[in-house]
Design goal:
15% strand; two-stranded antiparallel ribbon; alpha/beta
């Protein structure tokens, strides 16, 4: 197994490399793209019975031997959360430690901000800590941490000198997202992307333009994902 891989397609916008540490996810988000794809390909059995991929820590350690001092940014994670709810996330800490000791850097994206703060001692100004905000309600994201908790974790990372970012993707409730952009304007970067794989009555063109106008007004370092940008320019 070679768990460190180069993201392709839309995922390529996130970093040099990525690792998916766990199988499935416990957050229960109704719009989850990874779960939908697992169902499509018949691999969704036990999706909520999350476990670290067998041998993933040792496999990462072995693969990093050829990457010493490379200074690459390694994203955690795409098909899972690096801090799944109700799960022992020791493997995440071990992998972050291995990445840092190899001379590379880590980029976190999570909906479990409070759990993630336990590993801030391993991170520095070369790393990125990010949270996902979709604007959805608790029924839509039943086991993800409350957004206020995640933003508090983001603020803590920022205070420690860790670079911070927010992924507003997929956008579920546009008005809520616009409000959270204002609340997270201290972040070093924000990325905004539309809901792609399900039907939506959102006027993406109008939303995208309003987002961009707000980001420019707040002088934010922002990035409009390609799919939303296309809607804005249509």
């Amino acid at each position: 197994m070679r768990p460190i891989y180069k993201p392709k397609g839309r995922a390529g916008e996130y970093g040099d490399y990525a690792i998916n540490i766990y199988t499935g996810c416990t957050h229960g988000c109704t719009y989850c793209y990874a779960r939908d794809m697992a169902k499509r390909f018949g691999t969704a059995d036990g999706w909520r019975d999350v476990k670290p991929r067998e041998g993933v820590v040792e496999a990462v350690k072995k693969q990093l031997i050829g990457m010493e001092g490379a200074g690459k940014l390694i994203h955690l994670c795409f098909t899972c959360d690096p801090y799944p709810a109700f799960v022992d996330t020791t493997p995440t800490r071990e992998i972050i430690k291995e990445i840092k000791e190899s001379g590379n850097h880590v980029q976190i994206l999570t909906k479990s901000g409070e759990t993630a703060t336990r590993n801030f001692d391993l991170m520095d100004e070369n790393d990125w800590f990010g949270i996902t905000i979709s604007g959805a309600d608790r029924k839509t994201e039943p086991y993800a941490a409350d957004t206020f908790i995640n933003v508090a974790a983001l603020m803590k990372a920022h205070s420690l000198g860790i670079k911070t970012w927010v992924s507003f993707e997929p956008v579920i409730e546009p008005r809520a997202v616009l409000n959270w952009i204002k609340q997270t304007c201290f972040a070093d970067k924000i990325k905004i992307g539309k809901l792609n794989h399900r039907k939506s009555d959102v006027d993406w063109k109008a939303f995208g333009k309003e987002c961009e106008s707000l980001c420019q007004k707040l002088c934010l370092n922002y990035y409009i994902k390609d799919d939303l940008r296309k809607e804005m320019e249509s």
